[in-house]
Amino acid sequence: MEEPKNWWKCSNCGYTLQAPTPPETCPSCKEKCIFIDATCYTPECGGPGQIDPQIGR
Ligand SMILES: [Zn+2]
Q1: How far is the CA of 40 from the centre of ligand 1 (A)?
Q2: pTM here?
Q3: How far is the CA of 1 from the centre of ligand 1 (A)?
Q4: pLDDT value at position 57?
Q5: Residue 3: pLDDT above 80?
Q6: What is the predicted pLDDT for the residue at 20?
Q7: Tens digits of residue pLDDT in 14-43
Q8: Model pLDDT, residue 54
Q9: According to the 3-state scheme, what is the secondary structure of the chain?
Q10: Closest Cα to residue 7, out of 33, 31, 35?
């Protein structure tokens, strides 16, 4: 069974990536930034495994 990965969005540059846990350093801006959980949790955006369009762009 495949575990749904979370979407993470860098609060610094807005870069999004899919991973079980957010990385310590953003691969885009190379800063240690806060990663916001941008995973969709509602059926409107496709459920877990999908990015929440409200956050993820
Ligand atoms: Zn970044």
Answers
A1: 20
A2: 0.83
A3: 31
A4: 59
A5: no
A6: 92
A7: 999 999 999 999 999 999 999 999 999 889
A8: 84
A9: CCCCCEEEEECCCCCEEEECCCCCCCCCCCCCCCEEECECCCHHHCCCCCECCCCCC
A10: 35
User: Minimal CA–CA distance to 51: which of 33, 21, 23, 42?
Assistant: 42
For 10, phi and psi rounded to 5 degrees?
-70, 125
Give the distance (Å) from ligand 1 centre to CA of residue 7.
Answer: 14
- Give the residue extent of every domain in the chain: 1-32
Q: How far is the CA of 24 from the centre of ligand 1 (A)?
A: 10
Give the strands of the sheet with 16-19, arranged side by side.
16-19, 6-10, 35-37
